[in-house]
Amino acid sequence: MTTTNTQPPPTKVPAQPRTSIGKFLVQGGTTIALIALVLFFFAMRPDVFLSFTNVRNILFQVSILAIIAGAQTVVMVVGDFDLSLAATSSLAGAVAASLMLGGVPTPVAILVALVVGLLIGIANGLLVAYLNLTAFVATLATMTSVIGLAYLVTEGTTLFNLPGDFTTLGQGRFLNIPLPVYIAIAISVILWAVLRFTTTGRKWYAVGGNAEVSRLSGVNVRRGRLLAFAVAGLISAIGGILLAARLGSASAVQGSDNLLFSVAAVFLGMTVIKSGQANLVGTMVGVAIIGVLSNGLNIIGVNSYVQQVVTGLIIIAAVTLSSLKTRER
Amino acid sequence: MRTRFTTLAAIGAIAALALAGCSGGGGGGGGSASGGGDGDKPFKVIAFTSGNQTPIGAWWVKAVQAKADEAGWDLTMIQGDFDFQKMNPQVESAIGQGADAIFDGYTDYASISSIVTAAKDAEIPMFAMDSGTEATDAFVLNVTTDQQGIVDSTMGAFDEALGGLKGKNVMVIGHDPHPGIRMRAGLAKEALEKAGANIAGGDIQKVKSPATGRTEALAIVADYLTAHPNGLDAVWVGWDDAALGAAQAITEAGSQAKVTGVDATSEAIAGIQSGGAFLATIEQPWPSILDTLMEAMTAYQKDGTLPKKNFEAVETTLVTSENAADITPSDKLG
């Protein structure tokens, strides 16, 4: 037996594969988190969690958040954000309720409320795009004024005894599924299509990616941002009107938690796609995480204070993932 | 240079004297420092509330202004919008300018310790309406409602509607930051356990924000009923807005559970009258409580007489379908 003492060939150390488990977790973390949450709560309450009634519950509970988060997505696609969306939605609900109680026909009241939302969105857009205020300052200011307006409209009380044809919008069912679920799905699909397939959507992404390059490429950046804020105002008004219909009442501050949760949903959604940009499918994954978490924790009887802590931690985790991904790029 | 310095010093001295003249001396300079009115000047009152954006708070602001006009008081009304960082310094500043009395509406003493200290330093008595659930030396008089009485009445309504509470599953929904709701929710839990009822969910379910109380309560009850179909006989809720959310969840789930609230808002009364899940609420007699406090303040204005006791908890009225039509809703007081 002869042995040959051969030198090992010089090896070229291969670069670490970029599709490591770590990267997989970073890129798919949010979706994995959603699946993990569903599996966890299903394991905890297999008889309840994925039952038709409970899934319908979750969909019903997140439908209005989904609409407002969709509006927030549009603004965040252009690189801004809107702190006034929840306040705008409350005001729209209050305006519709106030008009209907004053004898205005339901369709007209809804139309006026939508116009109010649109006007607030346009005001935000003008402040940010044309007067060059930062979105934070502009929308914080409009939020403050809009909350005041909502108090004026409601006179600080809760408006109720709304007409049946209005409350049906929020409480009615088709095929045993609440109507707000269909409306949320329809709005989400439309927004997704606009963002993905239309020139406007591509321009919005271009503006959000690099406003200066977009401007030099011939995109009207100001108009794009104005349009995004206007659309967001209009959509948040739809959310507010639906919330008033769902609860059968309207107050100046109802649905105020939708602001935090809509931003959280968009941030969660930004981790879903490679580019780390705001995107509608991701936002809906974020909305689903928030809904599943809240419903699941309620079902297994976790204290609401703990729920709040857990929700915050998940948002931190998602934003951390998002920043890791951005750094990697 | 020297002339300029002298001129500046003179202007400074005049300005200081003018300011001292405006602010009066010590804490009570603007009013009558000896307590009570001094006859020549109008009785000076600082009134404040953090809850002016609630219907009852808004009513209180208007009612106190009307009564002050009627009594010829010099009233400074400070509305805090739930923002203590904004309200407390405003009240302290007003105290610094002097007053004869301070009137706190619906603001818990725990949130106004700096105001309490400033009032004590200035020796200005503080009268209060629903500003804490226990006696405290912060106020010369605080009149609120009897929390135990509220719980006893609502438990009685459940007992009657459910044919006894023993073995029944009852959820309690509270909101800790509000001292009244926190106290009565705790008392409700105790009463239910004593009566042999099961506390659904094992403990008090806590709503985080009053602004979203209705949607939070709706989700809590809807989720609970999904997990425990027919697992609820009743829901005791610390205030009407959240009770309306609980009642809506029960109706949507097709459950027969009953709900009680507290506040007697128009919407709650309408819910009771409709014969649905909303069984009863509690009317708190705010107008008569205000009258009691006005009497106490007028007595102090007259001759410096202070109330004999510093805390009073008055009786409330249970509102059911039988008397709902006779009740003035709390959001329609003004």
Automatic annotation (TrEMBL), chain A:
The chain crosses the membrane at residues 24-43, 58-78, 85-102, 108-128, 135-154, 174-195, 226-245, 251-273, 280-299, 305-324. It is found in: Cell membrane. It comes from the Bacteria. Pfam families: BPD_transp_2. InterPro entries: ABC_transp_permease. Keywords: Cell inner membrane, Cell membrane, Membrane, Transmembrane, Transmembrane helix, Transport. Its main location: membrane. It is a multi-pass membrane protein. This is Dolichyl-phosphate beta-glucosyltransferase. It comes from Naasia aerilata.
UniProtKB/TrEMBL annotation, chain B:
It is found in: Cell envelope. It comes from the Bacteria. Belongs to the bacterial solute-binding protein 2 family. Residues 59-301 form the Periplasmic binding protein domain. Keywords: Signal. Residues 1-20 form the signal peptide. CDD domains: PBP1_ABC_sugar_binding-like. This is ABC transporter substrate-binding protein.
